[in-house]
Amino acid sequence: MAAAGLILAMGLLAGAAKVDITPTDLTNLNPFGGGSFTAVHDPIFARALVLSEDAETVAIVTLDLPEVGDMTPLRQRIERELGIHFNNIMIAATHDHSAPRIGKVSPGALAQNGGPESDRYSGVVFDRVIAALKAAKGAAQPARFGLAKGDANVNVNRDQYTPGKGWGLGYDAEGPSDKTVWVLRFEALSGKPIAVLFDYAVHSNVTFGIKEISGDLAGAAERYVERNGGDGVVAMFMMGPAGDQAPRVFHAGQRGDVTRDRELAYEANDAQGVVLGAEVLRALNLITAPTSKVRIRVAARDAVCPTKPGVSQMATMTTVRSPTVTLHLSLITLNEVAIAGVSGEVVTNIYRHLRRDTPLSNTILATIVNDRVGYLVDDAAYDKPIFEVNGSPAARGCAEDAIVDGLVGMIKGLD
To answer: For 114-125, what is each residue's pLDDT tens digit?
Structure first.
């Protein structure tokens, strides 16, 4: 369905670009368990979208990576080199578990860390993000925008209770899960597509454990949309409230037969990528009245939570000890559509709370934006020793209200 209540403004300008960020040297770049990737299965990309109207310009960057650390240095560089204000920049990871990470771990965060090889790779990615943004800004042209919603049954709640064993990662078809596929289309005035930005709540970890570079589920969906969504379109995946969401079919390499594990993983990955990508394309066809009259507004806010220690985490998980952890909240609105960014992995129930309280019905939650501090869970979840609670850096009683009240307050405070 198209966005309602549109506010007239000067015409929209939009430009998009993508660049390859596949590492050429795989040494010590595997953030999960450490070590090196063994090969490249398919390339990974940085994708950039630059939108302008009147005096306001925003940039959205998506990266086929598991997480981004503190993106302050890169955002400052973007502001210096491209003139896009620091608060107008969203840099988001797809949470691809078969790729390197970038950036530094923030104080108080629970995140994967890397060594000098990761630092060097981060520098390469930063340079390529700048190149992608310059290309996108240079390609900006008069454009139209439209919104639609779809529905995909690719995700499932992963917090499973087993009698005699307790809580663990698994498959809970009855647990909280948001199936919404948000789809934003940007097209030239001729109708030629420029970019498709889509948001869905699922971990991209279908090929986790195969130890090959891959775009995983998000990358497979992006490829499908780019191949079938029109010549030159740039397809950008943002992860929604997926902190507690696994792919429905998960065949990563943990069964022992390396060849068979690999075959099953990529078969499951491609199938689910097609399902998600096909739903994006179906939703695009629901957009019948895109508009060039777009008003862009932005806001940003930091929320500080007291910390707690992580429990039963991977050995490679790192925390920079601090009594507090900072959550970065960011907001871009396009008329009555809100893209709300949070710098952690948010669970479904927090998004449900946000959807109840937001004054904009078209409020899209994007996670792992501008940092990745760890899991961010609703207050009630702390009663259970689930994986996301164990992996959250935030003490009980802070994150849920900080996110919901912060984002709602930002939306209400827009002029």
So the answer is: 899 999 999 999
Q: Are the CB atoms for 181 and 199 separated by under 8 Å?
A: yes
Per-residue pLDDT of 295-334, as tens digits, reads: 999 999 999 999 998 876 666 666 678 999 999 999 999 9
Sequence-ordered alpha helix ranges (H) in 40-141: 72-82, 116-138
Q: Which helix (H) or strand (E) holds 350?
A: helix 348-357
User: Pairing between strand 180-188 and 141-151?
Assistant: antiparallel
What H or E segment, with its residue span, contains residue 145? strand 141-151
Maximum Cα interatomic distance, the chain, rounded to a whole number of Å: 62
∠ Cα 235 407 373 (to 5°): 70
Determine how many CB atoms are found less than 10 A away from the CB of residue 100: 27
Q: What is the spatial distance between Cα 73 and Cα 390, in angstroms, rounded to a whole number? A: 29
Q: Cβ distance 125 to 21 under 8 Å?
A: yes
> For 28-58, what is each residue's pLDDT tens digit?
999 988 899 999 999 999 999 999 999 899 9
| Alpha-carbon distances, residue 297 vs 53, 81, 208 (angstroms) | 10, 22, 38
What is the token pair recorded at 166? 């307790």
d(C-alpha 312, C-alpha 333), whole Å: 39
Question: For all residues of the chain together, what is the average pLDDT?
Answer: 94
pLDDT band at 407 (very low <50, low <70, confident <90, very high): very high
Q: Which run of H or of E encompasses 226?
A: helix 216-228
| DSSP summary character for residue 233 | -
Select from 100, 102, 95, 97 the least CA-distant residue to 68: 102
Residues 187-204: what's their mean pLDDT?
A: 98
Q: What is the pLDDT of residues 125-147, one digit of tens each?
A: 999 999 999 999 999 999 999 99
Reported as a pLDDT band with limits 50, 70 and 90, residue 257 is: confident
CB atoms within 10 A of CB 135: 16
Q: What is the DSSP string of 163-217?
A: TTTEEEEEEETTS----EEEEEEEEETTS-EEEEEEEE---B-TTTTS-EE--HH
Q: Using alpha carbons, list the distances in angstroms from residue 267 to 39, 270, 272, 318.
A: 18, 5, 9, 32
How far is the CA of 259 from the CAs of 53, 254, 264, in angstroms? 52, 11, 9
